[in-house]
Amino acid sequence: MAAAGDVIALDRWDAAPPDVAAGTRLLQVEPRRWWLIGACAQTDTLTAQIGDTGALSPIGGGLTRATLTGAGWREVLTISGCFDVEDPRFGVGKIAATTLHHVPVWIAPTGDEMCEVYLANSYAPTLHELWSRSATGQGGPS
């Protein structure tokens, strides 16, 4: 788990998101909200592009990014969570908002055997313990 300081929220009121530089990930988290991941160096350019049709807000300071890897990452997410991890629409470039162990999270698959889970910093120890216990065969939530 690590700080997710590179996450910027883009709210766009009447238009699609702007073009972003190569290497920046753009994830639609709500009908008119996108997360730009890795776009910190582009904020001036993006601000000029969106003008008065939206707003940029850095939100990564309050988020932790957990990276789950391995063939079983989808199964791990079913521990204390309830959503369809096998839905074919839940793939690379998409994001799902749900709760795991009563913690609000956003899950973004980044490959067949990898995903990123974004959560509030204050919940990081709780999910770390849950996943550690599950990985070592010590059971699910305590």
TrEMBL record:
It comes from the Bacteria. InterPro entries: SoxG, TrmE/GcvT-like. Pfam families: SoxG. This is Sarcosine oxidase subunit gamma. It comes from Sphingomonas psychrolutea.
